[in-house]
Write a structure and sequence with these properties.
- The structure is a single chain.
- By secondary structure, the chain is mainly alpha-helical.
- The protein has 2 domains: 1-66, Orthogonal Bundle (Arc Repressor Mutant, subunit A), CATH 1.10.10.60; 74-196.
- Helices cover 74% and strands 0% of the residues.
- It has 10 helices and no strands.
- Helix 5 (79-93) runs parallel beside helix 9 (136-159) and helix 5 (79-93) runs antiparallel to helix 10 (166-191).
- It is elongated.
- The termini are far apart.
- 27% of the residues are buried.
């Protein structure tokens, strides 16, 4: 008789990710995961302390998948437009992952200032400042405006099924970037003291 295949953390995580992809994060529980793995719940709890431990590992795996997707799609020449477009495309390609990461958790109570100051967004904000010649605070506001625009578009795409081809998503991000940059430029110019 051949030896039984050993269950590993990686196999469990892979099954959990696939379960979320096909059925959504709300279906992730010990019984559904055990059924997907064709085993009892014992191997799961032998390798993970509890469901919270498993969900933390799953969250890290979903973050890894999301970050890899974003890294592949962001153009360093114009990070904000391509970041926003990639965010929407991730929602289109992986709607259940997007829901799990950005809708069900609602950014864990993060406010806009925390989002803007997150280390992973700083390079994009610096890129906005370089492209637009705006000051750091104005560049940060452009980032926030476009981020909110992207999040709204992605949320509508997966919840209402609106049809937005990728080319249109890019064009709309480009228009939003230009409009918000122009608005911030006007705000900066009205705050400057007159030149003698």
């Amino acid at each position: 008789m051949p030896p039984k295949a050993q269950m590993t953390r990686e196999k469990i995580l892979s099954a959990a990710v696939e379960l979320i992809r096909s059925e959504g994060v709300e279906k992730l529980n010990a019984r559904s995961l055990a059924a997907a793995l064709h085993c009892s719940t014992n191997p799961i709890f032998r390798l993970f302390k509890n469901m919270e431990d498993l969900k933390t590992a799953v969250r890290k795996e979903l973050d890894r998948i999301y970050n890899g997707f974003m890294d592949e799609h962001i153009d360093p020449q114009n990070r904000l437009i391509t970041q926003g477009t990639a965010y929407v495309e991730f929602a289109r390609q992986e709607p259940e992952f997007f829901r799990s990461l950005f809708l069900d958790r609602c950014m864990m109570g993060a406010d806009l200032d925390q989002i803007a100051h997150a280390w992973w967004n700083r390079e994009t904000i610096e890129n906005v400042a370089a492209l637009t010649q705006l000051g750091p605070e104005s560049a940060q506001r452009v980032f926030i405006h476009v981020w909110l625009f992207s999040h709204g578009m992605a949320s509508q795409l997966i919840s209402n099924g609106i049809v937005l081809p990728p080319e249109e998503v890019y064009k709309r991000h480009e228009m939003a970037f230009l409009a918000f940059s122009r608005l911030e430029r006007e705000q900066e110019e009205t705050k400057r003291p007159p030149t003698p």
